[in-house]
Backbone:
């Protein structure tokens, strides 16, 4: 069905947009590198492909006059999702252009901002590209070459968005959200214990982390203790009997 | 989708934020491994995160680089923290630089307060949704309010916001632990700067945006030159005052009003804008019974001050009533009413004033010289707003030179001075300040204030002016008896 296809494609675009944002945030900091620039380029290209695919599909669906009112409302909702994604992507691309220009990599006195992030962003990019491992094959001066391409791509995206505005007549404010406030709490993957511990470090309440950690430890200790007791009991029973 | 068809009239130029580019250069200099700020590692329970800097190191570096003293360096460091280029790791809500061993870290360039990137509410909504997921629904009070507001007015984008928040959250989990911690701290610091918690002041408050980019070169069209020529011609025609005279006047003004300015001096009992306590405003209402000592002092500075303050004017009116020269003030007030009043009632008002004050044998006849009387009577044939200006000025100078001096020595004024209240300064604790902030209410509506003013005026008019003929006739009757 057209709707399900649309939804999966929109989910994919959403995922790529989120990953792109994470990558752009790492630009200019100490986790910046050749690899990051290449990851940005690849993610961007994938985002654009998805965007074009989404657009053709959605415009085809919306232009169809013979759909029911409910269907049309649903397609309008999907359209609003698509345009919001595109806006975020547009802003992130423009910002990555600016930050990329301000922080070139191949300069002798390179000053990247010491933000405390030192790890690589390969896993994020792999998630965006839906692959297991990322392959890096770009040449040394990707940062300057890429920027020119980036400018042309930004122009393309701007043009696409203008066309979309002109051609598709959807009133975005008329769309009603399906999710209610606090919907994000319901269907997320359960937050693991380790990440709860990590995040509470940030909250200046080291007591919480310590408690969380020692709580776990306590549980383990209790289990081991009971096991030892059981073994001791069994041995004692055997000794008494034998 | 945000509406993009509206032409951008360049309303994004923030003139006071030209300092941002300069601060960015300073931050870049700080990164130099040899000459920059020394960095340490932050040790948390399980992880260690590099690139933490202490407050005292920052202050020392700035003082060294700009050759200033420690206090100035600390102020500059606080500015950098307030803008969001450096964020504190402990006590993250207070954006100040503490010159001790408290730790700070640099913000990533994406989250710098750049001039042309507007802070979008969509991003804030996504951030709040992510925080909601992490804190399992336990947001702080102000965050919860913002969340509800955004849900109401960004409802059409809400599905997108939820989807994007979940995806960003999952993408964030792909990174290693220390990076995740740093990212959370960065994002939180960014939003403390741009959506400050209640009771804090934001450095990003810069006033109105400008229509025109002040840094852009203007094209030299004939229109531009015409404007420049007009401007210079007007400059030449302006009357000039010797700088010694104008500076002398400025100095006199500042020395007199120095202690009365709430920005330069402490405001008693406490400035409502800082402590959210409105005692200062209630004590200084226009029609309060007992004015404050500062207010009474201001009446002694000049006659204008006395007349402009409604309470002062009421006091003066009382004094004049005792002296039986209330007609001067009444005439002056009537002229003001004519100048500022509605255009349709102007003719009747002018006629009324003439009958009451200016005509020969009028009940409240004022004493002005012949020439002014001539001009005024001639002007009243074709009345307009400023027809009584000459007479009003004459009466004003009369009151200023004569009655004002006597008023300041009179028992009425001395009584008011004695009764004036000098409130004590408030001393609020942190919790009391928070309570005050929660109890903030809007002040009286201007409609109600205007109604009160009108009632006052009606009461005054109804109490009847004591005119000289009535008093004279009373005296005569007394003498007869």
Residues:
């Amino acid at each position: 069905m057209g709707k399900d296809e649309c939804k999966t494609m929109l989910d994919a675009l959403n995922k790529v947009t989120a990953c792109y944002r994470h990558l752009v945030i790492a630009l200019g900091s100490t986790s910046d590198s050749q690899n990051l620039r290449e990851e940005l380029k690849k993610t961007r290209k994938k985002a654009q492909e998805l965007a074009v695919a989404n657009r053709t599909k959605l415009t085809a669906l919306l232009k169809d006059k013979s759909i029911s009112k409910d269907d049309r409302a649903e397609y309008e909702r999907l359209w609003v999702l698509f345009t919001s994604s595109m806006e975020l992507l547009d802003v992130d691309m423009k910002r990555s252009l600016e930050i990329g220009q301000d922080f070139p990599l191949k300069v002798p006195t390179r000053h990247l901002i010491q933000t405390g992030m030192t790890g690589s962003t390969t896993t994020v990019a792999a998630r965006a590209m839906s692959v297991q491992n990322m392959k890096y094959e770009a040449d040394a001066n990707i940062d300057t070459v890429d920027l020119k391409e980036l400018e042309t791509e930004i122009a393309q995206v701007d043009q696409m968005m203008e066309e979309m505005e002109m051609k598709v007549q959807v009133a975005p404010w008329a769309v009603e959200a399906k999710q209610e406030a606090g919907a994000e709490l319901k269907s997320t993957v359960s937050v693991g214990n380790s990440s709860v511990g990590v995040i509470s470090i940030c909250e200046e309440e080291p007591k919480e982390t310590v408690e969380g950690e020692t709580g776990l430890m306590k549980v383990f200790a209790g289990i081991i203790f009971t096991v030892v007791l059981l073994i001791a009991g069994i041995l004692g029973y055997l000794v008494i009997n034998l | 989708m945000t509406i993009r068809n509206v032409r951008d009239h360049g309303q994004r130029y923030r003139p006071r934020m030209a300092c941002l580019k300069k601060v960015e250069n300073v931050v870049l200099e700080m990164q130099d491994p040899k000459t920059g700020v020394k960095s340490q590692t932050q040790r948390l329970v399980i992880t260690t995160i590099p690139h933490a800097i202490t407050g005292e190191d920052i202050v020392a570096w700035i003082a060294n680089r700009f050759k200033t003293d420690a206090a100035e360096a600390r102020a500059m460091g606080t500015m950098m923290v307030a803008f969001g280029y450096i964020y504190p790791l402990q006590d993250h809500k207070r954006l100040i630089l503490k010159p001790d061993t408290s730790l700070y870290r640099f913000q990533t360039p994406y989250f710098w307060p750049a001039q042309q990137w507007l802070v979008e509410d969509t991003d804030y909504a996504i951030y709040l949704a992510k925080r909601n997921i992490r804190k399992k629904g336990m947001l702080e009070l102000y965050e919860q309010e913002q969340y509800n507001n955004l849900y109401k007015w960004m409802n059409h984008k809400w599905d997108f916001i939820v989807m994007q928040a979940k995806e960003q959250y999952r993408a964030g989990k792909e990174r290693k632990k220390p990076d995740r911690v740093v990212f959370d701290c960065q994002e939180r610091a960014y939003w403390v700067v741009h959506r400050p918690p209640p009771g804090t002041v934001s450095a990003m408050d810069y006033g109105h945006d400008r229509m025109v980019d002040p840094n852009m070169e203007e094209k030299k069209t004939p229109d531009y030159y015409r404007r420049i020529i007009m401007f210079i011609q007007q400059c030449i025609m302006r009357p000039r005052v010797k700088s010694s005279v104008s500076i002398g006047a400025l100095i006199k003004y500042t020395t007199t009003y120095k202690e009365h300015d709430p920005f330069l001096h402490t405001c008693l009992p406490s400035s409502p804008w800082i402590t959210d306590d409105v005692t200062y405003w209630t004590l200084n209402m226009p029609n309060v019974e007992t004015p404050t000592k500062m207010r009474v002092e201001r009446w002694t500075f000049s006659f204008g001050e006395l007349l402009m303050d409604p309470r002062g004017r009421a006091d003066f009116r009382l004094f004049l009533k005792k002296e039986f020269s209330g007609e001067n003030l009444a005439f002056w007030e009537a002229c003001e009413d004519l100048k500022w009043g509605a255009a349709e009632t102007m003719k009747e008002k002018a006629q009324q004033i003439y009958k009451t004050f200016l005509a020969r044998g009028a009940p409240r006849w004022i004493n002005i010289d012949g020439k002014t009387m001539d001009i005024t009577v001639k002007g009243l044939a074709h009345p307009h707003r400023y027809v009584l200006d000459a007479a009003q000025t004459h009466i004003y100078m009369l009151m200023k030179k004569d009655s004002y001096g006597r008023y300041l020595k009179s028992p009425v004024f001395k009584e008011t001075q004695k009764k004036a209240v000098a409130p004590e300064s408030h001393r609020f604790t942190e919790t009391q300040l928070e309570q005050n902030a929660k109890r903030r209410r809007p002040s009286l509506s201007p409609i109600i204030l205007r109604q009160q003013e009108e009632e006052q005026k009606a009461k005054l008019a109804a109490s009847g002016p004591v005119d000289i003929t009535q008093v004279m006739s009373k005296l005569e009757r007394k003498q007869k008896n």
